[in-house]
Amino acid sequence: MNPFLVVDPALVPKETRVSEIFYSIQGEGKLAGTPSTFLRLSGCNLRCVWCDTPYASWKPEGEHMMLGPMFVQMRRGYASHAVVTGGEPMIAPEIKLITQRLKEQGYHITIETAGTVYEPLTCDLMSISPKLKNSTPWKKEKGRYADQHERTRYQPEVLKKLIGEYEHQLKFVVMEPEDLVEVRQIVSEIGAKSSNVMLMPEGTKSKQLVERSKWIAQACLDYKYNFSPRLHIDIWGNERGK
């Protein structure tokens, strides 16, 4: 090694904490049913009370990986679609490099984000899930994350930037009919097209999803939104890595 060669530390790839890598079908959104390789990054700036992946948010876990081993594991799925999810992938230190390299390998890339952080990424579908008031953990763990979550969960200027720059879907997790008022306010404030809006029932059990899906489907008809299923829950339940 040349002792006089100075390497900019910012250009040296860093390890990224990976919660899991798995091959499955996309269960949500406009690409529901598509075989995909999922890269779940660990770490999140929110604490949704109903989060179904607490091992990537409330209590982040996972292996710190360099990009090479990460991509080797992803290629075992033989899928043309890659879904980068979390947690919140936008806060991962190497997210720009990860998406750039995935595109170089020929993947169609979906980013699953809450839309609170902006990064200029390589992305074919920005799947944005703005968090509603129903996500704030006022009682969970004695509410210690509630104020921070409430301040962070809705960032209209970030959302405007994301929907202005990327092919996108706005996927709202809804629990009660009252949530629709907040959905419509957000859609109006950020200037989103109804054709890009999706309503998805919250729940990790098929019976609960079916009950909520009935009135949510009607709301989609009323407001010209789209309905998003949760196919992975219908097929496997809330099983990790599915």
Structure write-up:
- The structure is a single chain.
- The chain has a nine-stranded mixed beta sheet with strand order 3-1-2-4-5-6-7-8-9.
- It contains seven helices and nine strands, in the order E-E-E-H-E-H-E-E-H-H-E-H-E-H-E-H.
- It has a single domain (12-236), classed as Alpha-Beta Barrel (TIM Barrel), CATH 3.20.20.
- The chain has helices spanning 67-75, 95-104, 146-152, 156-165, 179-190, 206-223, 231-236, and strands at 16-25, 35-41, 63-65, 81-85, 108-113, 125-128, 168-174, 197-201, 226-227.
- Helix 6 (206-223) links the parallel strand 8 and strand 9 (226-227).
- The protein has 242 residues and is an alpha/beta fold.
Please write out the topology.
Layout: E1 16-25, E2 35-41, E3 63-65, H1 67-75, E4 81-85, H2 95-104, E5 108-113, E6 125-128, H3 146-152, H4 156-165, E7 168-174, H5 179-190, E8 197-201, H6 206-223, E9 226-227, H7 231-236
Parallel strand pairs: 2-4, 4-5, 5-6, 6-7, 7-8, 8-9
Antiparallel strand pairs: 1-2, 1-3
